[in-house]
Amino acid sequence: MKITIVGAGAIGSLFAAFLSKSKEEIWILDKDKERASRINQQGIIVEGISGNWQVPVKATADVKEIEKADLLIICVKSYDTKSAVTAAKSLIGEETSVLTLQNGIGNIEIIGEVVGTEKVIGGTTNMGATLLNAGHIRHAGRGETVIGRIDGKIPVEIRLIREIFNKAGIETRTSRDIKGFLWSKLLINAGINALTAITRLKNGSLLDFEGTRKILRIAVTEGIKVAKRKRIKLIYDDPLAKVEAVCEATAGNISSMLQDVLRKKRTEIDFINGVIVRLGQELAIPVPVNSLLVDLVKTIEAGYNLAVER
Q: Which domains are assigned to the chain?
């Protein structure tokens, strides 16, 4: 199988590294020519919980070098989804599947508008990684990857992807209710990411302070109310307890949104807490804490060049 990973950030590089140990043909498509060239020359360097290792990976910024792919894995930031999939459209043939492993809600729909909904596979991963440099990542956490279609069907191509991922060391299973998994992951991100981006605390430290713990709980509770009104079946009996458990399990991790803020990059706030705010407004459900978190993160973004440095 020819697999093209679109995006060479932390998760894209992590999956490329693991999949490169398989017998499949792996490519990275990156809009950054210099980064693609560097990865092409050095491969991907991994350190962290899976040890210190390095694998060669073919990378390019020129879509013509890859030709048709059997599977595209979209790992770009959610706000870049449409442009990234459009740029990679020539790689998509009649039998190509497009898997999103991105944060937030809305990517499946955006991809479907470009390639057709029948080709799109939703996914969520609890694998954790931090980008240290181009082609150099820290493997920060192990966890399950879940994939499935919005219509609940599990065709042969999804089962094949699951098999390839598992053989490569990526613990993967399929689900007929991927929407429930995506929303459950959304609540985890909604409780952790914005708060860490604002406070610059690591995940575990959110529970060490009464103020951040209280805000986390209210933000998640607001999201739960929206999910219930949307009749989305969450995968955890106690989503709030799950978010706090994730904080503890990933205590030393720097969230992806905090990584963005530290690098003075745009965040995915619109696709995480912003989703809860938009749907809360549509459903007339008060979501004041999520609204405040969105406003604060957007203010941080707008003030990157104005903020006082530590």
A: 2-176 (3.40.50.720), 180-302 (1.10.1040.10)
